[in-house]
């Protein structure tokens, strides 16, 4: 393992979050990691990428863009390609997809810096990401994480909105609060997708859409694992632990004021991923 990147493990039982990265001088090990570090903390970067050295894939999950379902399908296809069984306790609907004990894909912090750099730059690796309409994604984040009292995202949002823990936070409060936060300091679940996925530094082989998830995922699975893997998976399954139906609730939560702020914060996402901006809530 590179001297620039180290990790430690704490004893614990599967089902608990027992592994954490301990980054030591990672910026010295990789110029690419240094550039990515401009918009995301290094610990988030090294935890986020899912990598297969055998099948030469790199997946970057984006919060609130079906990453639970995508990981569940990838893990099953990867395990099948390696002829290994998934753990008996692997239950995607109970968040085991986010537990490092259950996934056959590697995290960046488990690899030497030179291998990370190769995976993130070589045209021999298939790098992909999925994106979502910013309006839907932000409301889904609010409904799932921010509106729930006591969650980490709720506490961060309250702080940004100059409210006390335990206070009620409206969607308008939330949107106005995150406007002035630096991109690097944002919660990954509401950081603009362009920067969350490092589009300013990385070239992706494929950019899928949440809105065409099943068909785009079929393309990804077939490209990496072959058409037989597509047939073996039920890609219509939704493994999300929290379904918010955000798209159908936009008019319920958005105001024209919130809409203007969201258009400002996520301007790059709208432009880069061809999502249409609207100026009035009635246009939803």
Short summary:
The chain contains 14 helices and seven strands. It has 284 residues and is an alpha/beta fold. Helix 7 crosses helix 8 (171-179) and helix 8 (171-179) runs parallel beside helix 13 (256-265).
What secondary-structure arrangement, pairings included, does this model have?
Blueprint lengths: L4 E5 L9 E5 L2 H4 L1 H6 L5 H7 L1 E3 L4 E4 L6 H15 L24 E2 L5 H9 L4 E6 L2 H13 L5 H9 L10 H9 L13 H4 L9 E4 L3 H13 L1 H6 L17 H4 L2 H10 L1 H6 L12
The oligomerization state is single chain
- The SSE string, one letter per element, is EEHHHEEHEHEHHHHEHHHHH
User: C-alpha Rg, in Å?
Assistant: 19 Å
How many structurally independent domains? 2
Helical content, roughly?
A: 40-55%
Based on Cα principal axes, name the global outline.
Answer: globular
Molecular structure report:
The chain has 284 residues and is α/β, with parallel strands linked by helices. The protein has two domains: 5-132 and 194-232, no CATH class; 134-191 and 244-283, no CATH class. It is built from 14 helices and seven strands. It has helices at residues 26-29, 31-36, 42-48, 67-81, 113-121, 134-146, 152-160, 171-179, 193-196, 213-225, 227-232, 250-253, 256-265, 267-272; strands at residues 5-9, 19-23, 50-52, 57-60, 106-107, 126-131, 206-209. It has a five-stranded mixed β-sheet. α7 crosses α8 (171-179) and α8 (171-179) runs parallel beside α13. It is globular. It starts with a strand and ends in a 12-residue tail after the last helix.
């Amino acid at each position: 393992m590179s001297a620039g990147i180290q990790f430690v493990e704490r004893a614990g039982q599967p089902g608990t979050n027992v592994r954490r990265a301990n980054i030591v001088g990672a910026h010295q090990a990789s110029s690419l990691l240094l550039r990515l570090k401009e918009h995301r903390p290094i610990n988030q970067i090294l935890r986020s990428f899912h990598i297969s050295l055998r099948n030469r894939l790199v997946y970057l999950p984006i919060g609130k863009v079906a990453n639970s379902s995508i990981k569940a399908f990838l893990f099953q296809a990867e395990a099948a390609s390696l002829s290994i069984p998934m753990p008996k306790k692997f239950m995607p609907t109970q968040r085991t997809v986010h537990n490092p004990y259950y996934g056959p894909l590697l995290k960046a912090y488990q690899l030497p810096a030179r291998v990370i750099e190769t995976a993130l730059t070589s045209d021999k690796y298939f790098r992909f990401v999925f994106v979502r309409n910013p309006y839907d994604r932000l409301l889904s984040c609010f409904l799932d994480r921010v509106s729930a009292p006591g969650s980490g995202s709720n506490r961060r949002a309250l702080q940004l909105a100059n409210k006390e823990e335990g206070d009620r936070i409206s969607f308008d409060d939330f949107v106005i609060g995150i406007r002035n936060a630096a991109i690097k300091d944002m919660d990954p679940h509401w950081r603009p997708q362009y920067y969350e996925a490092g589009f300013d530094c990385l070239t992706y082989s494929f950019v899928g859409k949440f809105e065409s998830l099943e068909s785009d995922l079929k393309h990804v699975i077939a490209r990496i694992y072959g058409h037989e893997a597509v047939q073996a998976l039920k890609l219509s399954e939704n493994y999300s632990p929290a379904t918010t139906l955000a798209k159908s609730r936009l008019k319920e939560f958005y105001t024209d004021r919130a809409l203007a702020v969201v258009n400002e914060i996520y301007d790059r996402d709208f432009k880069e991923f061809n999502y249409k901006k609207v100026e009035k809530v009635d246009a939803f």
